[in-house]
Amino acid sequence: MTSALRNTGTSRSNGGASGNSTRDSSRRRWLAMAVLLLPVLLVSIDNTVLSFALPQISTTLAPSGTELLWIIDIYPLVLAALLVPMGSFADRFGRRRMLLLGGAGFAAVSIVAAFAPTAAALVASRAAMGVFGAMLMPSTLSLVRNIFTDRNERRIAIAIWAAGFAAGAALGPIVGGFLLEHFWWGSVFLLAVPVLIPLLVLGPIFLPESRNETPGPIDFLSITMVFAAMGSLVYGIKELASGGVTAAGLAIIAFGVAMGALFVRRQLRLPTPMLDMSLFLRGAFSGAVLVNLLSVFALVGFLYFASQELQLVHGLSPMTAGLVLVPGLIGMVAAGLLSVPAVNRWRPVVIVCFGLGLSAVGYGLIAGGTGSLVMLVGAFVVLAIGIGATETVSNDLIISAVPAEKSGAASAISETAYEFGAVLGTAVLGSVLNAIYRSHLAQTPGTDALDTLGGAHETAAKLPADQAITLVQNANDAFAAGVGMTATIGAVLMVAALGLAARMLRGI
Fold first, then answer.
1. Less Cβ around it within 10 Å: N or C end of the chain?
2. Helix/strand/coil (H/E/C) assignment for every residue in 361-392
């Protein structure tokens, strides 16, 4: 009897120790998640802040319309082109190590960007930020995959990860708006420093190191191919959208497609490829990647014209414009978190299609609207809720479809889709908007064509009152025409995306 009691006591003691160990392990996982949110918030804040800083950049650095697009596009272009190689490097050399190296470099280059004297210098700084950003992003999602081995816990963590993007998008305009109202445009880039310092201090403490113990060799030819393919595709699309269909633009796109085909062919023939193409044979994986790309396309394309319309057409300050968009961003966070219990009741394909349908409705409201502030805000709320749901589900499908040792590559593909969607959202919808704006303004008698709406408002400030009023009205009308057509294209693309997702994710 005594022996039995001793055994029972020992068992209880061990159970208590095990329970404490489990609680400590759980607490440490969520502390690690909090640390991983820092670079996620940074990237999201950086993208949103830049959109709201465009008017000041336009007036201070006086970029051309093409330079303005490159200031936005060069960062996600370089980032997208290097995400797959950097994801492979993270699997090989250590995901935490790559995350910390990227954080240190990103902070340093952000300081350089803040004091860029010309548009060209800002483009170069943004390109360097893309290099270090490519080190950051695959590591965050792959570390989530390795830290949270339980599917339900991981789904919640991914929802928080995705919500971090929305939270950063909400925080960016508010904090950035305050900076833009009190300091010069370059101050928005300095936000990276206070965000990344805690990452560099706490990362080595709470983030476990993980890597693929049997990595493949470094393939510099494949890196060159994927960079050339994505760079050429985006540049060619920009050329066609801004200058019309030309032989040069088509040739650039053809070169990008050819390089992409060679890259895929090389990966299929290598015994240990940089990118495992067999991942795309899984319907859940390839369909989720497509959803990821198109949902970000919708968000970034919308913000490109919304940020300018709020400040230049409706006359809101940067901070007020940011606050106006907060309801939509809160809806995005809520939709992402609510999608976790929702997938226990409905299949993922249902939630994805519902989200893409809302995105189409959001664009449709703008296409058929009156240009009122209320309509713009309401449309963004609808769009953001749809994106919040689709992003959470798509990212969960992507990283859950691969084994843990491939998490870096899978995360890189997810992030590539995200950033490539951002590039296309600006390149396609932004270029269409600019082309229609210039075309309408050039047809106005007595009005010289101006590249950007910000440039027109800056020019008007130097003219006599009657001429200024005429120029501003003509520029606003031209911009509204561009927004209407851009929103129509966005709505059609979202409907097409819904159909593709329903087919590719069928049965999931």
1. N
2. HHHHHHHCCCCCHHHHHHHHHHHHHHHHHHHH
Instruction: Encode 143-209 in three state secondary structure.
Output: HHHHHCCCHHHHHHHHHHHHHHHHHHHHHHHHHHHHHHHHCCHHHHHHHHHHHHHHHHHHHHHHCCC
**What single DSSP character describes residue 507?**
T
**Within 13 A of 108's CA, how many CA atoms are on the CB side?**
10
Structure tokens at 406: 């491939």
CATH number of 30-216+274-504: 1.20.1250.20
Q: Residue for token digits 């230049």?
A: 312
CA angle at residue 226 from 352 to 142, to 5 degrees?
Answer: 50
Distance CA 102, CA 36 (A): 13
Query: What tens digit of pLDDT does each residue of 426-442 get?
Result: 777 877 887 788 777 76
Domain boundaries, the chain: 30-216+274-504, 217-273
Judge whether residue 352 has pLDDT over 80: yes
Q: Rounded distance, CA 506 to CA 508, Å?
A: 6
User: Between 491 and 463, whose confidence is greater?
Assistant: 491
